Fold this sequence. Notes:
single chain, alpha/beta, DHBP synthase, ten-stranded mixed sheet, 10 strands, disordered C terminus
Amino acid sequence: MATELLNLRESVSYWGDIEKAALALLSGKIVAFPTETLYGIGVNANDSAATNCLYRVKQRPESKKLAIMIAEPDDVTKYVKEIPPIARILIKSFWPGPLTIVFALPDNKSIGFRNSSNRVVRDLIKFAKVEIASTSANISGEIPATDAQQVITNFGDKIDVVLDDGPTQFKAPSTVVKIMDDKFEIIRHGVIEEERINRCLDENCLSFRS
């Protein structure tokens, strides 16, 4: 089945296209969407079969966990019951925005969350009423897509729906920060520079460092 490309720049069909993509997510399909950084591909985070399919299409080892896209900052509490103070400050300062925050869980695992400032992916999550397990729209190790046509070039008909909202704002990845109690570690440098994070924490009378 050919990939369905939906042009969100035609405002008259915006909500109809969001609904199509939401129904695709709920039926176990892979959807590509814009963020402010790069295009992503994702599936219903509660659908293990769809998640396995996403790993195969991405050619990503399952040891590399997917991020969870959430619609609102408070949605992280569905998964993480205890939010460390340093994480609360980063959430307040940078969400919605190009920051992925990785939390350590009680079972010695970790999980990353992203609350994008792009309205398309947030509207998609809200309409589907499920979080999205996601990754950048590229085969592992290749260049990530920054527009819808690059998504099609990267995956052909291996994904089901592409939401086209034009080129991304930053054309660079989100910064990924791992929280460990009262410390943080940058595990991927991106749009938000480490200096900005340090300055944010200093202004809140904290001296946490990676």
